[in-house]
Amino acid sequence: MKAIYLTGFMGAGKTTIGKALSETLQLPVIDTDEYIIQQVGKTIPAIFEEEGEATFRQYERTFLREFPVNDVIITTGGGIVIQEENRKWMKEHGIVFNLYCEIDEVFSRVSIDGSRPLLKTDDKSKVRNLFESRSAFYQEAHFTIDTTYKNIEEIVKEIQNKLKNLESGDNV
Ligand SMILES: Nc1ncnc2c1ncn2[C@@H]1O[C@H](COP(=O)(O)OP(=O)(O)OP(=O)(O)O)[C@@H](O)[C@H]1O
Ligand SMILES: O=C(O)C1=C[C@@H](O)[C@@H](O)[C@H](O)C1
Ligand SMILES: [Mg+2]
């Protein structure tokens, strides 16, 4: 099976759903954020602070191309879609699921604990603007799954159903 890429805004549940889907489908999962942290040996806030966001984006772009493109789930960082070549890569090499979550629910899911540098602001309108500005990029995915009022089990089932339809001949 082609790689399954999960995209979406911060807090949409990519990492969480990826782990659950990995158990259900018995496929390995790679999380781009966790991979970068391991490879670079720094936390994401430290990379942003010491090397800058542009360098973080280079890591995302480089590592994305090093991951397998078959029989794997790749859960991405929320900003992977900013780079057009990443959107293209994922669509060419895999099946892309955009996990959508309404922004107010995002705010209640994620804490401003410093682990996400782009959420480290008191100004919610900045985060809303970021969310809006990326919306079209996320929607380039093969499928969009609204996760807003769903639990993990329901979301995994929905993804599984889409994959089953593909196996039985539907095109993406
Ligand atoms: N469907 C859901 N319902 C309620 N809470 C959820 C759901 N999915 C994820 N969460 C919670 O939201 C928080 C963020 O989830 P997660 O880290 O998986 O998001 P993410 O999309 O990977 O974010 P990031 O882009 O920052 O990596 C976690 O505390 C998680 O438990
Ligand atoms: O949306 C974003 O730009 C980000 C999301 C996180 O997954 C991390 O990749 C990082 O905090 C940046
Ligand atoms: Mg994540």
Could you write a compact summary of the structure shown?
The protein is α/β, with parallel strands linked by helices and 172 residues long. It has eight helices and five strands; from the N terminus they run βαβαααβαβααβα. It has one domain: Rossmann fold (3-Layer(aba) Sandwich).
Secondary structure layout:
Layout: E1 3-7, H1 14-25, E2 29-31, H2 32-40, H3 44-51, H4 53-66, E3 73-75, H5 84-93, E4 94-100, H6 103-109, H7 124-138, E5 143-146, H8 152-167
Parallel strand pairs: 1-3, 1-4, 2-3, 4-5
Helix pairs in contact: 1-8, 2-4, 3-4
The structure holds adenosine-5'-triphosphate (ATP), (3R,4S,5R)-3,4,5-trihydroxycyclohex-1-ENE-1-carboxylic acid and magnesium ion.
Function: Catalyzes the specific phosphorylation of the 3-hydroxyl group of shikimic acid using ATP as a cosubstrate.
Catalytic activity: shikimate + ATP = 3-phosphoshikimate + ADP + H(+)
Enzyme class: transferase
Distance between the termini: 14 Å
Q: Please tell me what the overall shape is.
A: globular
Instruction: State the low-pLDDT regions, or none.
Output: none
Report the structural category.
Answer: alpha/beta
Main sheet makeup = 5 strands, parallel
Number of strands: 5
The level 1 CATH classification is Alpha Beta
Task: Examine the coordinates and then state which fold CATH places here, giving the name of the CATH topology.
Answer: Rossmann fold
CATH architecture: 3-Layer(aba) Sandwich
Give the name of the CATH superfamily.
Answer: P-loop containing nucleotide triphosphate hydrolases
Radius of gyration from the CA trace?
Answer: 15 Å
Order of helices and strands: EHEHHHEHEHHEH
How many distinct folded domains?
A: 1
Structure annotation, total helices:
8
Strand order of the largest sheet: 2-3-1-4-5
Helix content: 40-55%
Average pLDDT rating: 96
Ligands: adenosine-5'-triphosphate, (3R,4S,5R)-3,4,5-trihydroxycyclohex-1-ENE-1-carboxylic acid, magnesium ion
Strand content: 5-15%
